[in-house]
């Protein structure tokens, strides 16, 4: 489809290696990588391996409820991050896409109160994002089909 961009697993591997290379080239050495669940889990894991960062954390934030359907504001879901573990750290927030940027802004603002430095790495950033991430693999205004997004739900 012309109005969609499909990311393959091979492209994802190349994208996360390029993101990691950009982090290294920038001289940023994160103490921990904070994944924005769910799509950011894949990105955080790949970056963790590439950057040799074993300290991975997760924030589960609900904002999107469907295609072009979202809540009024992002909501933090349990388990809540232990801010004592974030104290004074250099944090790299990892997510799959900065669409509106509201979720990333929410997570970045949460971190900013507790960490020494925070930066964001995303595979895709959309033009309307209110957060301009430090590390971006590709900019697009298309709908993105990620390899981990199942076209239909499988439930018992």
TrEMBL record:
<keyword id="KW-0812">Transmembrane</keyword>
<keyword id="KW-0472">Membrane</keyword>
<feature type="domain" description="Phosphoribosyltransferase">
    <location>
        <begin position="9"/>
        <end position="149"/>
    </location>
</feature>
<keyword id="KW-1133">Transmembrane helix</keyword>
<protein>
    <submittedName>
        <fullName>Putative phosphoribosyltransferase</fullName>
    </submittedName>
</protein>
<keyword id="KW-0328">Glycosyltransferase</keyword>
<dbReference type="GO" id="GO:0016757">
    <property type="term" value="F:glycosyltransferase activity"/>
</dbReference>
<dbReference type="InterPro" id="IPR000836">
    <property type="entry name" value="PRTase_dom"/>
</dbReference>
<feature type="transmembrane region" description="Helical">
    <location>
        <begin position="32"/>
        <end position="51"/>
    </location>
</feature>
<dbReference type="Pfam" id="PF00156">
    <property type="entry name" value="Pribosyltran"/>
</dbReference>
<dbReference type="InterPro" id="IPR029057">
    <property type="entry name" value="PRTase-like"/>
</dbReference>
<keyword id="KW-0808">Transferase</keyword>
């Amino acid at each position: 489809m012309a109005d969609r961009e499909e990311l393959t697993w091979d492209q994802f591997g190349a994208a996360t290696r390029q993101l990691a290379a950009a982090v290294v080239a920038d001289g940023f050495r994160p103490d921990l990588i904070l994944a924005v669940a769910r799509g950011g889990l894949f990105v955080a894991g790949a970056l963790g391996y590439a950057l040799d960062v074993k300290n991975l954390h997760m924030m589960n934030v609900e904002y999107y409820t469907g295609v072009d359907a979202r809540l009024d504001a992002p909501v933090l879901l349990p388990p809540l991050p232990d801010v004592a573990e974030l104290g004074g750290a250099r944090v790299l927030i990892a997510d799959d896409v900065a669409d509106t940027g509201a979720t990333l802004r929410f997570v970045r603002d949460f971190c900013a109160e507790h960490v020494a430095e925070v930066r964001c790495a995303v595979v895709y950033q959309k033009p309307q994002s209110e957060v301009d991430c430090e590390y971006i693999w590709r900019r697009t205004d298309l709908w993105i089909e990620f390899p981990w997004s199942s076209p239909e739900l499988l439930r018992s």
